[in-house]
Design goal:
Number of helices: 15
Helix content: 55-70%
Strand order of the largest sheet: 1-2
Radius of gyration: 23 Å
Number of domains: 2
Number of strands: 4
Order of helices and strands: HHHHHHHHHHHHEHEEEHH
CATH architecture of the largest domain: Orthogonal Bundle
Shape: globular
CATH topology of the largest domain: Arp2/3 complex 21 kDa subunit ARPC3
Distance between the termini: 50 Å
Largest sheet: 2 strands, parallel
């Protein structure tokens, strides 16, 4: 009887969430979508779709989970960034949720649950932000605090309730795991929104968005070829995490230092990463390191600034005059400058180094999804008969 009661409750809570999500979607469609004008920069919401998918892929529920989780950082940032266009936030949630859940290999019911929960967070979060108002700094700060409270309730709290009901576990234990670092993640989402709307931080935010879209391409490739999301962060990943974090911190610091360090430090790190990747035979990282090396070499040869082809492109980045310079007949290594136009709807141009970095990142993510971690293989309860046969064959050979 107790099992039957839990089963009925599990079906009921998901059904209620689906109905609530559908109602919120219909209300937002009538109030925001139908009267809205087309958003002028489609690359912005496409970037947030990619960032939400990556956020959920790395920090969300696992591939075998029956419950869902909202993106820890990026969906809250989208609500703030598109505060004048809540229909864009709704579009981001409705598109990114099912795609992210599908790429993790989750069941159709979990995909529906994720879509409903993300829709509720987007609609009620945007409604709260607009209800409080954001016309001046005090109202903006209060609106951000109210948004965080709503997002927390529809994120960690709701996900913990779903997990507890669907798995028959205690709510307190489930909530203890979901609330871990939740406040820090909400603050990070607000900071991401600030970076997206701040001119001197915008280049870094755009690089994060570009990296997210490339990562999604790698996730999609890994999914197509039968990769698994759980293997990306499984034990035995061929990347030293601490040196990678240290290198990222050094790159951030180098952006605020004078003299040759803004290009000299990335150049040195690219050389070190390339040597290490070739030594370990991790060729996607070697490809990305080669791309970074090409970018920094052309910057070093042109006074620390990246040459750009075309007056119109340079005018679009004139607020970053210390970063870019117009390419001309006296440009050194001109064939490595920013000269390849990106396809619509993405703005701007890319260099040969950027292309190598994108290829390396996408291939590396796909490689992680397709790998078979030696440390996890004997106990990996995945149901993959091929993996089990490989293990048995190796044991027989050893005997």
């Amino acid at each position: 009887m107790g099992f039957l009661q839990r089963h009925v409750n599990a079906r009921s809570i998901r059904a209620l969430l689906w109905v609530a999500g559908l109602a919120a979607l219909l209300a937002a469609t009538g109030g925001w979508v139908l009267p809205a004008q087309p958003y002028p920069a489609p690359w912005a919401w496409i970037s947030f779709i990619g960032m939400c998918i990556v956020d959920d892929f790395l920090l969300g529920s696992k591939e075998d989970a029956r419950w869902s989780e909202v993106p820890k950082i990026t969906l809250l940032a989208a609500i703030i960034v598109f505060r004048r266009h809540p229909e864009v936030t709704l579009l981001v949630a409705v598109v990114a949720a099912p795609i992210g859940s599908l790429l993790k290999g989750q069941s159709w019911s979990t995909q529906l649950t994720a879509t409903a929960q993300w829709t509720l967070a987007a609609v009620f979060g945007a409604f709260t932000f607009r209800l409080v108002g954001f016309g001046d700094t005090p109202h903006f700060l209060v609106a951000t605090g109210a948004l965080m409270a709503v997002y927390y309730a529809l994120g960690p709290v709701l996900s913990a309730r779903l997990e507890a009901t669907l798995t028959g576990t205690d709510f307190r234990s489930a909530f203890a795991s979901h609330r871990r670092l939740a406040i820090s993640m909400l603050v990070a989402g607000a900071l991401l929104a600030l970076a997206w709307r701040t001119s001197w931080l915008e280049p870094a935010a755009l690089k994060v968005a570009d990296g997210a879209l490339v990562t999604v391409a790698g996730i999609f490739a890994g999914f197509i070829f039968g990769g698994r999301a759980s293997r990306v962060l499984a034990p035995g990943a061929p990347v030293p995490v601490r040196p990678l974090v240290a290198a990222g911190a050094a790159l951030i610091i180098s952006e605020f230092t004078p003299g040759p360090l803004p290009w000299l430090l990335p150049l040195g790190l690219a050389v070190a990463a390339g040597i290490w990747a070739v030594w370990r035979q991790i060729y996607p990282i070697a490809c990305g390191a080669l791309g970074a090396y090409c970018n920094e070499v052309v910057r070093a040869a042109n006074g620390g600034r990246m040459p750009v082809e075309g007056h119109n492109v340079l005018a679009a980045v004139n607020s970053r005059a210390t970063t870019y310079v117009l390419s001309g007949p006296h440009t050194n290594f001109a064939w490595l400058d920013d000269r390849f136009s990106l396809p619509p709807p993405f703005p701007g141009i890319a260099s040969a180094g950027d292309i190598l970095i994108a290829i390396g990142m996408a291939c590396f993510v796909a490689m992680l999804m397709l790998r078979r971690p030696a440390a996890a293989a004997p106990g990996e309860a995945t149901g993959d008969d091929a993996d089990l046969e490989d293990i048995r064959g190796n044991e027989a050979a050893a005997a």
